[in-house]
Amino acid sequence: MNTSPKTHSAEAPTAAPVADERHLAAIMESLDRLMSIEIRPADGKLPAGIVAGLYGACRDYFGEPLTGVAERRLRESVANNSTVLIATGAGIGPWLPQGETDGPMGAAALGRAITLTLRAKVVMVTEARHAPAVRAAVDALTYPAGFKPEIELVEPGEREGRQASQRLVTLYHPAAVVFVERDGPGSRGRFHGVRGDCRSADDVAQLHHLANLAARSSILTIGIGDGGNEIGFGAHRRRIASRLPGDGICRAGCDSGIYTVTKTQVTVSASVSNWGAYALAAALAASFRLPEACHTGAAEEILLKACLEAGARDGATGTSALQTDGIPLATHQHVIALMEAVAATTASRAQTVEPQPIHIFNTATTKGPRLVC
Fold this sequence. Notes:
This protein is an alpha/beta fold. The chain has 12 helices and 11 strands. Strands 8-7-4-1-2-3-11 form a 7-stranded parallel β-sheet, with helices on both faces. It has a two-stranded antiparallel sheet with strand order 5-6.
């Protein structure tokens, strides 16, 4: 009998396997926490202390991480070679005459993730004042061959919004419609910014008609926002009002307040709308074990500079500073890096040790995507 003491192997013990669903649930929880970290710089004058209330109102309704709900519904609804419409663009003059950087950047990154994971066609929907930034964001990223998004323009006005929505649904038969930082009307039909500024319905493209038509047509709708005034939050208006009493007041005296009445089937509430889109992109990357579908810090810098050069401004300060919602670029990159790290935990050992090089952004100057009229 060998009575010599047992020796321990140099190889680390193998951890007990984690079920895919349980692992993904933990990832979605982490992504939700990252996207809902509130940062409200004082110089931006954005209302502080509202992010937790907005997120909590949506989370109470779904009872699970918002990124998880949105990712699962996309995966269930969007087939290969189907079409997903992504509507974005917020802001109006004189503060934001060509829109803000929050929205187009998130839409482009999410669109890229959808093309890589779901292999679906993406069509961006916006209005003329926001088109340069949306075009610049799309041009800054590299999509799979044949999947570069097109851009559709919708004119301001009630009739124009209804007609455009009907045309888009009839033309593309979308499997899903996603709204990223896109304002919806209040109960009086007026549109508001998160600070309480009031805008006439005749001055903005009324893309809430697209959300309503999609819902009636049994098309999946997802709203991504950060202030309660964006399309999607209408489904949680009462819960928001109870959590944030006294907030959401229209500065022009409109008794409807800033919170929209427009609903979507899933609402992703984040501290910055771009972060909500990035978190959803990371959720798709994790689910498909495709880490290259994540947005990255390097791509964030390219996107931000491209949108600023196209005329978009920081929504918090109305300036062309290298920031979004008053938050410096470096901070956004840190949050994005954490999302990447969380999503990458589902990748295989081969993928994490020897990643394949992939160009996620396009530094060449291009003419932009085709405008479909």
